[in-house]
Amino acid sequence: MSEPRPKVALGVDLAGSIARDTGLATLDTEGNLKHGVVHTDSEILEFVHLVQPDVIVVDAPLSLPRGRTSADVPAPFHLRECDRELLRRRIRFFPVTLGPMRLLTKRGMTLAATLSKDYLVFEGYPGASQDILGIPRKRKGLALLTGGIRSLGIKVESNLSGDELDALTCAYVGILYLQGKTEFIGDPEEGEMLLPLPARSHQ
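The structure corresponding to this sequence follows.
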């Protein structure tokens, strides 16, 4: 009998435009890592179908605030319940309706609608996850973020881009989800965000 396949989580650090890099990273339950940079939705889908992940965590808003019908149509609704929870936790973020975030939100929602037909897809936020896990965000420097990820027990090379490191953070949160070490914040009917439980809960 063949050995069961390790569970695989895919992280996607989605860019709002195909002109910018989208980071991809997979992590499995045995610690194996793959990573890369793509641009188009078709390249993302090709990678997804190649690795057949058990869970996908996307760094992009995958829903709109309640009462808003479009990211483009002005409306007095800017925050989702998951965003309000980030505020309560004093975690910094960009609202989904802020400037370039509108493009990212539209792309994220479209991509998630396609992927959700065949895969388990959640919205993630590597900045918040890094804060919760007690490791630096990439704005502190890629070397520090790389070191922080290594402190989680992940064997990662020193040459990953910031997009790939954020994607890897999302993938790690996906592994934690498979291990029952995550939580959802927000309103299920509006859109939830997947975050790790505090690092002390992972022991």
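Helices lie at 41-51, 81-88, 101-115, 126-133, 142-151, 162-178.
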